[in-house]
Amino acid sequence: MKKFAALLTLLMMIGCTASFAQKHKKRKKNKSDTPTEAQLMAFKASYTKLLGDSLQIPREKRDTVAAMQVQFLLKRMKISDDKSLSKEDKEVRYGMLENDKYMHLGAILSMEELQRLEAFETRQKKRQKEMEKERQDQYNQQAEQRRQYNQRYNRGYGGYGGYNGY
């Protein structure tokens, strides 16, 4: 009877694990990186507010510029998600997309407004690169500290405990 109960318990555990794995796999497969409509609307609203507050773009142009920004953001995401493109091809397409974006914005905004928008985006990109570099430096510093710790206590380099091969 004990063997039967143990076997039954084992089979139930295997079944539960398989069921969990299937659910997790389905959830992962259905996950999409495309933003929801609510997220797009929230981005558009905050971008419209930014255009008015920081860049003093006239009210009648804000919604159009924000809608174009959302449209180009979605195109950029499609390029980013395309696994068939190499990094260099993606950079070329990003450049072409930026040129196209500024061409369309140039038809809506005055030269002064377009220059303010470009300067703002340049500052944002620079700030983003600085933050990314800072994160990478912090990661490298932590990795170096882990490496020194492991080396000091001979972990992961063969041997046992404090034995250093002498």
From TrEMBL:
Domain of life: Bacteria
Keyword Repeat: no
Compositionally biased residues, Low complexity: 138-155
Residues making up the signal peptide according to the UniProt record: 1-21
UniProt keyword Signal, yes or no: yes
Keywords for this protein: Signal
Biased composition (Gly residues): 156-166
Composition bias, Basic and acidic residues: 125-137
Region of interest called Disordered, as start-end residue ranges on this chain: 125-166
Entry protein name: DUF4890 domain-containing protein
Classification of source organism: Bacteria, Pseudomonadati, Bacteroidota, Chitinophagia, Chitinophagales
